[in-house]
Design goal:
Structural class: alpha+beta
Distance between the termini: 35 Å
Strand content: 15-25%
Shape: globular
Bound molecules: adenosine monophosphate
Number of strands: 23
Radius of gyration: 26 Å
Number of domains: 3
Helix content: 25-40%
Largest sheet: 9 strands, antiparallel
Length: about 600
């Protein structure tokens, strides 16, 4: 049962947000006004709905909720949990146990998060009605955008959207990323025509798991309809940059197909061929134009050169994606970047109500009807206030304070109860009574190129794994740090290694010089040890490039420490940063590099889970 706020002022297109372009938008905007004005009472109702819907579940019974649906009892009795705490229950559901363990509604599928646990994607159980809730949030995007960008009904959106391969759990439920689930749903495939939301990409191109064929078809359709394109987007910035890279690599083939009105034999998927061929006719003039623009070797402003009517980029550049802002600015000639939504596999959270603001000013308003939200205050010095006795200190959505940082905790209709998402958010203001949050960071993420998230322990394990290969040379890694290199597309991980190579060869070992091929193999050994999301991005998506080890000369990490101390770090407390982004430090490291090595192959990855 969705929470429906009272709709007022029904016959006017004037809303609290200002005039809407039509009555349909006005209705959506009024809906948001009501939700945000009544954030606290909507939250109270959402919690009561979730707790009564799931009252008989094994989980709520275990904590003796006895049918209570009020906040006090909920907070007093239910612990704040992490994925690892719920893993036994989740595993039982995945293995086919259909009893109401976490949720009274049948689990329809598992959403595979880009967050991992023990190297595997986390599995989030979901229920059918959650699709409606996600759809509801999507339906609010265009009414908000229409407030800021006029005339979106006069053209189309060129969106590079992709699905990923899916697997089945031992119990037979599909396990796939949330966007794959959404694009494959009737909500997306059979969406009603909306002149404000027309895509250049045919569904068939989006719904192909072969990333080359999917991208090729989407790019071709985007080029053919280039003058219709009013916005260019992808979910995350990294996805849009991959599309630009694809154009750089394949424009000749694309121009040839456009010139001849043909479709390359590399597109073997029949449904894509049928969907695309109808729109193709020989257009040598367009082919010449594309050739002229792409053969210059100058890619600055390519987006606006090819799609001159683009008003904005629709792409998330907050959080880990902020590293791509300068590159996107370069390719787009400084077009505005709209970050519209904040969402996860566990729950869709909210929207940016000022989508045309600068990336640094983006705040997301959590919609209080999506789930029940609580916030752990982040203690600036000592990490997080996590003790269970502190569970009642969690702050409710309507009561967070401006300027403070919190870790997000959610309770969802699908059965997650007081679940720590791992995102750290800062309150920047309120829209009515609903707080707005700046995404600060994901907890424990050291390296990220696209959806991959590598933490310190995973990096440590990878270094340990790889350093086995240099042991026969009487060598070891004495210090290391890392950097997500995104100046070229695809980006890749750079790991700086300082080695200690002992002069005396060890028994049965080799002389004290490590051959370059061995260090190349170390790169691959590191990749083998990284989590499944990393390896999938390397192998199936090609969205991360080969890992690089840069060997720095002995003493470099001591210099790093001297530098930190000269800037005020305490010598007693100094720890080697396991990831560096600060330019002077990167420059210092790079000036001490003695050799660079790249992974010579692809790590192992298979679409099925290993458990
Ligand atoms: P997943 O569970 O794989 O869908 O990843 C969800 C996570 O992606 C969130 O918990 C955030 O850490 C991150 N994320 C999603 N939307 C945004 C956004 N708009 N800005 C920054 N990070 C985001």
């Amino acid at each position: 049962m969705a929470v429906k706020p009272k709709v007022t002022n029904e016959n006017s297109t004037v809303t609290g947000f200002g005039p809407a372009v039509n009555e349909k938008d006005a209705e959506k905007l009024r809906f948001m006004e009501e939700l945000t004005k009544n954030a606290d009472s909507v939250q109270e109702r959402v919690l009561a709905e979730i707790l009564s819907q799931n009252a008989e579940t094994e989980y709520l019974t275990r904590y003796k909720l006895n049918g209570a649906t009020d906040r006090e009892t909920f907070k007093a009795k239910l612990p704040v949990v992490t994925y690892e705490d719920l893993q036994p229950e989740i595993q039982r559901i995945a293995n086919g146990d259909r009893s109401p363990i976490l949720c009274s509604h049948p689990i329809s599928e598992f959403l595979t998060s880009s967050g991992t646990s023990a190297g595997e994607r986390k599995l989030m159980p979901t229920i059918r009605e959650e699709l409606d809730r996600r759809q509801l949030l999507y339906s609010l995007l265009i009414p908000v955008m229409n407030l800021y960008v006029p005339g979106l009904d006069k053209g189309k959106g060129l969106y590079f959207l992709f699905i990923k391969s899916e697997s089945k759990t031992p119990g037979g439920l599909p396990a796939r990323p949330v966007l794959t689930s959404y694009y494959k749903s009737e909500h997306f495939k059979s969406r009603p025509y909306d002149p404000y939301n027309v895509y250049t990409s045919p569904n068939e191109a989006i719904l192909c798991t072969d990333s080359f064929q999917s991208m090729y078809a989407q790019m071709l359709c985007g080029l053919i309809q280039r003058l219709d394109v009013l916005r260019v987007g992808a979910v995350f910035a990294s996805g849009l940059l991959r599309a630009i890279r694809f154009l750089q690599l394949h424009w000749e083939q694309l121009a040839e197909d456009i010139s001849n009105g043909t479709l390359t034999g590399q597109i073997t998927e029949q449904s894509i061929r049928e969907a695309v061929i109808g729109g193709l006719k020989p257009d040598p003039e367009l082919a010449r134009f594309i050739t002229k623009e792409c053969s210059k070797g100058d890619w600055a402003g390519i987006i606006t050169r090819i799609w001159p009517n683009t008003k904005y980029l629709d792409v998330i550049v907050t959080g880990a994606m902020a590293q791509y802002i300068p590159t996107l600015e370069y390719y787009s000639g400084g077009l505005p970047m709209a970050c519209t939504m904040y969402a996860s596999s566990e729950c869709y959270f909210g929207l940016n109500l000022r989508p045309m603001c600068a990336p640094a000013d983006v705040s997301y308003t959590i919609m209080p009807n999506m789930g029940y939200f609580e916030f752990i205050p982040v203690d600036g010095t000592n990490g997080y206030n996590t003790c269970n006795g502190g569970a009642h200190q969690l702050v409710d959505l309507a009561h967070v304070e401006i300027g403070k940082e919190y870790e997000l905790v959610i309770t969802t209709y699908a059965g997650l109860c007081r679940y720590r998402v791992g995102d750290i958010l800062r309150v920047t203001g309120f829209h009515n009574a609903a707080p707005q949050f700046k995404f600060i960071r994901r907890k424990n993420v050291l390296l990220s190129i696209e959806s991959d998230k590598t933490d310190e322990a995973e990096l440590q394990k990878a270094v340990t794994n790889a350093s086995e290969l240099i042991k026969p040379y009487n060598a070891s890694v004495v210090e290391y740090t890392s950097h997500a290199y995104t100046k070229c597309i695809p980006g890749h991980y750079v790991i700086y290694w300082e080695l200690l190579v002992k002069k005396d060869p060890i028994k049965n070992g080799k002389s004290g010089v490590i051959p370059a091929e061995v260090l190349d193999e170390c790169c691959l050994a590191m990749e083998e040890a990284l989590n499944t999301v990393y390896r999938q991005s390397r192998v199936a998506d090609g969205s991360i490039g080969p890992l690089e080890i840069r060997v720095v000369r002995p003493g470099t990490f001591e210099e790093l420490m001297d530098y930190a101390i000269s800037r005020g770090a305490s010598i007693n407390q100094y720890k080697v940063p396991r990831c560096v982004n600060f330019l002077p430090i990167l420059e210092l490291l790079d000036s001490r590099v003695v050799s660079a090595h790249f992974s010579p192959g692809l790590p192992k990855w298979a679409p099925t889970r290993s458990d």
